[in-house]
């Protein structure tokens, strides 16, 4: 596009973005499957209207149909083995899912439930028998299923769930029972209407012994009727995602054959002997749960792409909408020429790019771990932490971005036709499902503080508090002592003790050193506070409660550092030229607006003077002015099919 | 309620709240009308279900019916003169509106459209002839009307709107015409279905001369059919408030009699002479617009009460929901015992109380100005600024609070039955309608910088930039020079030059001095930057664009100071006792969490050391622990009718 050179500061050579090239860079190795999804989204773009026009029941049926039609194009089965009709490419399946988030999010989530959660559980927790029995029909969408993990009484604390599965050696069956009303399965997608099968997570009891949580395949409907012993209730209307039929399930002594246990990590012999290749029960549990990681990576990518839709609409609107005169003899000024409007939208575009590249990293790691090219215990733990963290930051980003974009479009943003209504309502629960964001960040922190020590994989904070305050605390504190910390960041920068005062604000090493310092300092502080708390007070619950916001802040800082690294690495990789210049501007804007947002912390910890803090604010404003003429190209490079933007009066 | 003394820090005497007394304090002088509204809300509580169950058209009709039924109880007509069937008490009408926000917000907004905007325009812009003709029937809801100000092309910049009203002296009629498609009226509540009359804002042309924006009564429907020359289009589905029929209106040479001009501030004689008691056209315009202030005060109060509903549900849930074990041998811990959860909810409760008391102040001012007991030019300007500022802070607070509360209720918060879905979707547009929040804060800043100089009432930033950079700048800068500033705050505190270092964090004078310092320093900075910008660069648009975020931050700081003052004044007023202790805790929590949120700014400007900043963070955490046992009582004192909380599984 032609940019207005008058808008850029004097003496500065404005880069001109090659939108096509940048779009290719963003699509990366999965351009083909992304284009398939884009084509499908355009074909079925009417679903965005149908979401508003159809009744509650009709829309659910429409979304089911659409999921089956998408399955026929191959886009939703990319992650399953080819021998069962899948695409055999896990990375491609995530990329397809991410791209699907440009469209209606009920369709996205139903695809996630059917192929990610239900199909993923069969694939990763089951063995060949289960694969043969279910995969071919579930990949086509003929066999619909649900993933019955969450209970009303236990959301994020899966290990404590209350559904029971007792093995009856006499009949060689498991008997599944909902022990109390709090143990009913809840919010289960596909449960209210479409699921024939459920993968049910329950406490296994064999020969009177408790063996912890395991997964079972349980028929919940036969010929469209709810199966005997099963009770299903509709969760009813939700804030959004009303194309997905969420429901509650109770089991009253439902009997399933011995083979119904998904037995990749543990089985029961006909006689009732429990066998598992993993001895430690906590470790077994977290290995099973590890298969959830794919869902978290998927949601993270979906959230980033939902943010793109909001930003594309708001940016295009801000380029054409005029409001108030700028000078007495002039037209009214377009919104994006207002400093405040730049401040509102452009750092969000920068952060969206940053999260996009961070998502590339986590998707690649997932692909390597799950296709076995880079699968070891350490890689799995690192992947789980990164997936949890990216999911938390990505979904919060979506909530914040969609809200800001709606407000930036004023009253027009409130009309359903302009996409924000559905985007906002549908994406809201992303910060809760697949693991509540705060709980996920605690998980990240636990991994960092315990170095992913496998004997303490218990998600409970007790384990963490005890571990950290026990054996490991000296190591953690030593590793992260202020002295050592400074030494490490000093190595990165030539400034010696004054590294944080003399480095250029646009020096990527400076930016990274700041985020690294914050992360390590926070985590060391958490370790020290946990230890001090336990020394003074023997109740780990109270100790944890007091440190909890610090724990979460430390994990957040860690993930933000990973995101910046991903962005900075990508910028390095890009060949010289205007696109690199543009991406560097954007990366600077992300880094400095991130530091700016937490500048109080940096000042409190002696890493920013008041003067330098103000300089960072000025630099962010200046970067916004430099990015402003690139804004339309930056959102166009996301290549969102135009029909999906809708918003006829906003994007023109 | 019985509070858990184990939860409070040692050696601290926990106050016990008298919920009944606190509720009376909060309801204040309007307890009676508030109780009437509470009773009505309970009677019609089914509307919360109907909002989900009824179809698009049916729900609109249901809301209309309900508005008429509420009108019959007298609650919606409180603000109109008794001679026409009203209650003759403007303050009471606002209190009734605020209380109505505990219920369905479509009902609230339709009441606002009918009685506040439409009825308010007839009352305040019309003269006796109009009052006699319309008030009796509009007060009962028999005559529905709409307020046709906003246009597609002009949202917040009303002075630039494009609808034309040309006076035809031959026929003694005005001819109303939508000049371009951008001049269509848009988002007009009641327009799509129910309005018979519209108050239309249009550019008046008399004898070839442009006289600026004036308001006319125009029939838009006759016997239920759209009137000739009028075209109406439905705005269709919106993110929320779907019980309100918003629409677009075009006028094609619609003729209305000379008497259709609402002529309190300007009239046209039959011969076509324009007459107005206000000579300055800008001033006339802003006097007319000043009648909008009531809408802003209403929305501010409604937003604060919508926040209360969200907080009441989330607090009750956090008191009963257990998640994860706190100690190995204990039950799982309730959410509100987690430090992070306290940090998430309790400062929001404190801010809600603060805004409640700030709303009391602005409602009282409105009442005094509009019932003539305290009406002068200065009082009006002050009221307008305060109403604009409270509306901006109150509505942003609602958006943030409802979101945080939804997330704090996890997946359950996503189910429609638990209120957040409707609260969030319906209240979202509050930050936009009745004046976009950013534009309103600019208005506040303009008033502060120009001391409400009446000759520069133009809402355009040009006027402000020129004024500030011209004559007045020296005064502004002098008044707000760092030297003078410090002198003034020093007078308040005994600490001399070290006032900000030695005062106790819980000293109300310290807290206020900090907010005053910030406000004045920011505004002085804006004045200086505007002047410097104009000295270097003659384009006021560019100058303003660069300073805009600073302008808005200054206005925000000003309003926050007013809010703190309102809260601190109220605490002083309350008789000694536990309730006073509890309110002081809450006021401290509001003040210090407000300073904490902007502690970077205070450090950058030498008013907080790193050590003291950390001390404030610790104090906020400590205050949260002290407020935690009071949380349920604090939300119960809002006296929200239990049926309106719904959320059977959350509040139990």
Structure, explained:
The structure is a homodimer of 652-residue chains. Chain A is α+β, with helices and mostly antiparallel strands. Chain A has helices at 19-27, 31-43, 47-53, 56-72, 90-100, 105-125, 128-139, 281-290, 293-320, 339-370, 377-408, 420-427, 437-450, 461-469, 473-479, 482-492, 499-502, 508-536, 540-573, 578-597, 599-604, 610-627, 631-636, 642-645, 648-651; strands at residues 145-148, 163-168, 173-178, 185-188, 197-206, 209-219, 221-222, 225-226, 230-234, 247-251, 254-257, 267-268, 274-275, 322-325, 332-334. In chain A, the strands form 5 sheets. In chain A, strands 1, 2, 3, 5, 6 and 11 form a 6-stranded mixed sheet that branches. In chain A, strands 4-10-9 form a 3-stranded antiparallel sheet, with no helix packed on it. In chain A, a hairpin with a 2-residue loop joins strand 5 and strand 6 (209-219). In chain A, helix 6 packs antiparallel against helix 9, helix 10 (339-370) packs across helix 22 and helix 13 (437-450) packs across helix 19 (540-573). The longest helix of chain A is centred in the last third of the chain and has 34 residues, at 540-573. Chain A is globular. The two termini of chain A are 16 Å apart. Chains A, B: Pfam families: ACOX (PF01756), ACOX_C_alpha1 (PF22924), Acyl-CoA_dh_M (PF02770), Acyl-CoA_dh_N (PF02771). Chains A, B: Keywords: FAD, Flavoprotein, Oxidoreductase. Chains A, B: InterPro entries: ACOX_C_alpha1, Acyl-CoA_Oxase/DH_mid-dom, Acyl-CoA_Oxase/DH_mid-dom_sf, Acyl-CoA_oxidase, Acyl-CoA_oxidase_C, AcylCo_DH-like_C, AcylCoA_DH/ox_N, AcylCoA_DH/ox_N_sf.
């Amino acid at each position: 596009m032609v940019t207005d050179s008058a808008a850029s500061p004097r003496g500065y050579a404005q880069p001109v973005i090659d939108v096509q090239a940048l779009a290719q860079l963003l699509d990366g190795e999965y351009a083909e499957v992304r284009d398939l999804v884009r084509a499908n989204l355009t074909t079925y773009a009417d679903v965005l209207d149908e979401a508003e026009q159809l009744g509650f029941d009709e829309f659910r049926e429409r979304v089911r149909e659409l999921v089956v039609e998408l399955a026929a194009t191959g886009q939703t089965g990319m992650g399953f083995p080819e021998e069962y009709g899948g695409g055999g490419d896990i990375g491609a399946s995530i990329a397809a899912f991410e791209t699907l988030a440009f469209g209606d999010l009920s369709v996205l989530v139903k695809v996630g439930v059917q192929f990610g959660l239900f199909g993923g559980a069969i694939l990763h927790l089951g063995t060949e028998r289960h694969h043969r029995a279910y995969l071919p029909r579930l990949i086509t969408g003929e066999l619909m299923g649900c993933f019955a993990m969450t209970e009303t009484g236990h959301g994020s604390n899966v290990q404590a769930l209350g559904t029971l599965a007792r093995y009856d050696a006499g009949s060689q069956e498991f008997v599944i029972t909902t022990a109390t009303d709090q143990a009913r399965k809840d919010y289960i997608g596909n449960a209210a209407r479409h699921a024939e099968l459920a993968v049910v997570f329950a406490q296994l009891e064999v020969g009177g012994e408790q063996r912890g949580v395991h997964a079972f395949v349980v028929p919940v409907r036969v010929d469209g009727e709810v199966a005997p012993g099963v009770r299903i209730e509709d969760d009813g209307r939700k804030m959004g995602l009303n194309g997905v039929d969420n429901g509650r399930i109770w089991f009253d002594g439902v009997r399933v054959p011995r083979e119904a246990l998904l037995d990749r990590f543990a089985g029961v012999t006909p006689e009732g002997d429990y066998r598992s290749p993993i001895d430690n029960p906590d470790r077994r549990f977290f290995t099973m749960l590890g298969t959830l990681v794919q869902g978290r990576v998927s949601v993270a990518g979906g959230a980033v792409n939902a943010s793109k839709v909001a930003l594309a609409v708001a940016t295009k609107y801000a380029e054409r909408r005029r409001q108030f005169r700028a000078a007495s003899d002039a037209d009214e000024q377009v919104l994006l020429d207002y400093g405040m409007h730049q401040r509102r939208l452009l750092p969000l575009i920068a952060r969206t790019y940053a999260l996009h590249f961070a998502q590339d990293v986590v998707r690649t790691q997932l692909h390597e771990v799950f296709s076995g090219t880079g699968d070891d215990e350490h890689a799995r733990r690192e992947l789980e932490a990164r997936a949890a963290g990216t999911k938390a930051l990505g979904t919060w980003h979506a909530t914040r971005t969609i809200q800001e974009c709606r407000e930036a479009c004023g009253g027009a943003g409130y009309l359903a036709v302009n996409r924000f209504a559905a985007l906002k309502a549908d994406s809201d629960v992303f910060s809760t499902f697949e693991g509540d964001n705060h709980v996920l960040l605690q998980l990240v922190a636990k991994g960092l503080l315990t170095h992913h020590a496998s004997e303490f994989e218990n998600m409970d904070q007790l384990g963490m508090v005890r571990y950290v305050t026990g054996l490991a605390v000296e190591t953690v504190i030593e590793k992260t002592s202020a002295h050592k910390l400074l030494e490490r960041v000093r190595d990165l920068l030539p400034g010696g003790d004054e590294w944080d005062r003399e480095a250029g604000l646009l020096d990527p090493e400076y930016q990274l050193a700041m985020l690294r310092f914050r992360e390590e300092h926070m985590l060391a502080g958490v370790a020290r506070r946990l230890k001090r708390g336990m020394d003074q007070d023997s109740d780990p619950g109270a100790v944890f409660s007091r440190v909890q916001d610090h724990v979460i802040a430390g994990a957040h800082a860690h993930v933000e550092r990973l995101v910046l690294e991903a962005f900075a690495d990508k910028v390095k990789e890009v060949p010289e030229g205007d696109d690199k210049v543009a991406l560097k501007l954007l990366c600077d804007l992300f880094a400095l607006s991130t530091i700016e947002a937490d500048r109080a912390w940096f000042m409190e910890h002696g890493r920013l003077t008041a003067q330098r803090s103000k300089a960072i604010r000025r630099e962010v404003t200046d970067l916004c002015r430099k990015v402003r003429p690139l804004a339309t190209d930056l959102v166009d490079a996301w290549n969102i099919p135009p029909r999906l933007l809708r918003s006829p009066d906003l994007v023109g």
